[in-house]
């Protein structure tokens, strides 16, 4: 991306919450379309905030195998402002919907992962007592607004190949229902069928981990790698895998669910009913609880605040992240040893902790990845940021042979 390009944050930071018009994020891709007055011409793809940064955290390890090589990237994907921009090709665009705890984001994503237009339904619009159909109608309004932003009428949406939906909470792939925890009215809600019936398009449903894994493999830190684990660290921990160049869901679609792999058989009880699960040791909620019960200076601190304390050198916070990071490294080493992976991409809110998390992960990984083929460092942070899930949802629509999801 050229030096003059606007790169101040992700699409998440730039979408005007609840505005009547969707934001035209990448106007260069839309010839003849008129952006709303509030629109900004920006392409939001995974680019490091600092041109001199080593986003894969491997700069001090010359033997690391996970560093991306020039050959891993298609030169046509470079965002050089001088290159000729092709006209938007609807058959290579996907509508994406991200249903999160506190918001719903809608985007149109082009074939190289560019977010073309986007709109958000903020938490303030998602009233706890709102009924299911009212929320769905609000969603349809946002989708139509995104389509209008690029000059597409809703009844012309059939020119698109499909809709990708990424959601928190339980997904029933067979029934096409979602149960996002932040939307009580949408428990077991038949979102797939309702969207498909309304727009006459195929709809793919993805978990947050599946979407991040697909996005990072398609356009992010795992690009060009045959086999990868995508790991999402938040209050909970989830994962998904690509094996031999193809997303693997497993029998029930839960392959890669690393959060409930046991890392300590005598450890804390987990909400799943198990004991010593990775999530119970290293999830955001577990981090906050361990700091609180081991003398943390702020008993009300959440994981982000514990991370900030660790960066200031607080010994309890540092010990908390040491425990969590080494457990993550242990679990990841087991998965890499089992599946012979090229790279593990770590995303989610907790990666903002930085070295206080990644250094212990590396130590735990090296301690437990004992076999020669598994030993080289290969744990890297996600590159696509908060857009990664929606980019992954687009991958499932545009590359269904590679990312076959529900």
Kindly provide the radius of gyration, computed on alpha-carbon positions and rounded to a whole number of angstroms.
Answer: 21 Å
Report the average pLDDT across residues: 82
Strand order of the largest sheet: 1-4-3-2-5-8
**What percent of residues are in strands?**
15-25%
Give the topology string: H per helix, E per strand.
HEEEEHEEEHEHEEEHHHHEHEH
Do you know the CATH topology of the largest domain?
Nucleotidyltransferase, domain 5
> What's the CATH architecture name of the largest domain?
2-Layer Sandwich
What's the story with the biggest beta sheet?
Answer: 6 strands, mixed
Number of strands: 13
Description:
With 406 residues, the protein is of the alpha/beta class. The chain has 2 domains: 11-210 and 388-398, Nucleotidyltransferase, domain 5; 225-381, ATPase, nucleotide binding domain (Nucleotidyltransferase, domain 5, 2-Layer Sandwich). The protein has helices spanning 11-14, 132-149, 191-199, 208-219, 278-282, 284-293, 303-311, 315-339, 355-368, 388-398; strands at residues 23-24, 94-99, 104-109, 115-121, 163-167, 170-172, 177-179, 203-207, 228-233, 237-243, 246-248, 343-347, 379-381. Strands 1-4-3-2-5-8 form a 6-stranded mixed sheet, with helices on both faces. Strand 12 (343-347), helix 9 and strand 13 form a beta-alpha-beta unit. Helix 4 (208-219) crosses helix 10 and helix 8 (315-339) packs across helix 9 (355-368). The two termini are 34 Å apart. Residues 1-14 and 31-85 have low confidence and may be disordered.
């Amino acid at each position: 991306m050229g030096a003059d390009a606007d790169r101040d944050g992700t699409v998440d930071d730039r979408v005007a919450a609840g505005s009547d018009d969707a934001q035209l994020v990448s106007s260069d891709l839309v010839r003849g379309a008129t952006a709303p007055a509030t629109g900004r011409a920006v392409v939001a793809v995974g680019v490091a905030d600092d041109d001199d940064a080593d986003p894969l955290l491997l700069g001090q390890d010359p033997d690391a195998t996970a560093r991306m090589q020039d050959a891993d990237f298609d030169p046509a994907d470079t965002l050089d402002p001088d290159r000729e921009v092709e006209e938007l090709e609807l058959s290579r665009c996907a509508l994406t919907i991200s249903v999160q705890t506190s918001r719903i984001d809608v985007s149109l994503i082009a074939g190289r992962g560019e977010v073309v237009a986007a709109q958000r339904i903020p938490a303030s619009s998602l009233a706890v007592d709102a009924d299911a159909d009212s929320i769905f109608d609000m969603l349809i309004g946002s989708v139509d607004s995104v389509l209008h932003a690029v000059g597409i009428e809703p009844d012309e949406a059939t020119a698109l190949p499909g809709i990708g939906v990424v959601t928190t909470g339980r997904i029933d792939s067979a029934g096409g229902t979602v149960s996002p925890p932040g939307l009580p009215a949408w428990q077991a809600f038949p979102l797939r069928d309702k969207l498909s019936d309304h727009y006459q398009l195929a709809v793919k449903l993805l978990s947050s981990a599946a979407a991040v894994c697909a996005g990072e493999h398609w356009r992010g830190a795992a690009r060009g790698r045959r086999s990868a684990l995508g790991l999402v660290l938040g209050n909970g921990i989830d994962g998904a895998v690509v094996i031999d160049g193809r997303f693997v869901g497993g029998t029930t679609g839960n392959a890669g669910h690393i959060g409930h792999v046991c890392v300590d058989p005598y450890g804390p009880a987990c909400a799943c009913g198990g004991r010593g699960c990775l999530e119970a040791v290293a999830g955001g909620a577990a981090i906050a609880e361990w700091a609180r019960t081991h003398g943390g200076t702020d008993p009300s601190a959440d994981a982000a605040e514990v991370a900030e304390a660790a960066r200031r050198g607080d010994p309890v916070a540092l010990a908390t992240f040491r425990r969590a990071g080494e457990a993550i490294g242990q679990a990841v080493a087991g998965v890499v040893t089992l599946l012979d992976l090229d790279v593990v991409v770590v995303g989610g809110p907790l990666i903002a902790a930085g070295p206080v998390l990644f250094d212990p992960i590396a130590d735990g990984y090296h301690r437990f990845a004992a076999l020669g083929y598994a030993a080289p460092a290969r744990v890297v942070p996600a590159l696509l940021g908060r857009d990664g899930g929606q980019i992954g949802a687009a991958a499932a629509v545009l590359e269904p042979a590679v990312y076959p999801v529900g």
